[in-house]
Amino acid sequence: MKIDQSLPLEYSTQQNQLNILGFWVFIGAEIMLFGTLFAGYFVLVDRTGNGPTGADIFEITPVLFETFILLTSSFTIGLGIHAMRKGYTKAMIWFYVLTLVLGVVFISFEVYEFMHYIHVGASLQTSAFTAALLTTLGTHGAHVTFGVFWGMFIVYQLIQRGLTPETANKSFIFSLYWHFLDVVWIFIFSFIYLKGMV
């Protein structure tokens, strides 16, 4: 395996570069998935039937907490990548662990939010609006949950193997995934919650 010392560690081999390119293709597919969910939501948002509307069920305080937590986790994982590029493995691991803790806190808020929706009568069966809402939020939440487990596996590899071209590549790809989830959340916050509260 030929290592190019002039490049950042995550790009330092041809295989690493192909892995990153392949992941960008995967991100393109994920954009299509969430684009489809958003399109479905916008078509169905006014089809509430006898059920509640967004203005009836959305609570700004938990949503602001979720947004702050997830955006903070994007910052901490960015610090993790910065530490990786400086060769500070321990600092990188701690920033990744902090990112995953924030991810778990975010998921906890989302579980609370789903329980609130069910309590006020907004389930998958209530209306087309609630079905589209819960499907979109649930898909994002499932992605974050998967990301937490994936991140735990990467932290384990970093502890076991240290910082190598392979672990750096995996860590960088994971950071791209995490940032992507944060971008999706910004769209959810802006076009589902804020728009739905007015």
From TrEMBL:
Q: Does the keyword Cell wall biogenesis/degradation apply?
A: no
NCBIfam families assigned:
QoxC (TIGR02897)
**TM regions (residue ranges):** 21-43, 63-81, 93-112, 132-159, 171-194
The family database entries (PANTHER family) matched by this protein are listed as: CYTOCHROME BO(3) UBIQUINOL OXIDASE SUBUNIT 3, CYTOCHROME C OXIDASE SUBUNIT III
Write down the InterPro entries for this protein, in alphabetical order: Cyt_c/ubiquinol_Oxase_su3, Cyt_c_oxidase-like_su3, Cyt_c_oxidase_su3-like_sf, Cyt_c_oxidase_su3_a-hlx, QoxC, Ubiquinol_oxase_su3_dom
Show where the Heme-copper oxidase subunit III family profile domain sits.
1-197
Provide the protein name.
Quinol oxidase subunit 3
Its localization reads: Cell membrane
According to its record, how does it sit in the membrane?
Multi-pass membrane protein
State the species of origin.
Answer: Lysinibacillus capsici
Q: Which reaction does it catalyse?
A: 2 a quinol + O2 = 2 a quinone + 2 H2O
Signal sequence extent: none
Write the Enzyme Commission number(s) for this entry: 1.10.3.-
Q: Name one Pfam family in it.
A: COX3
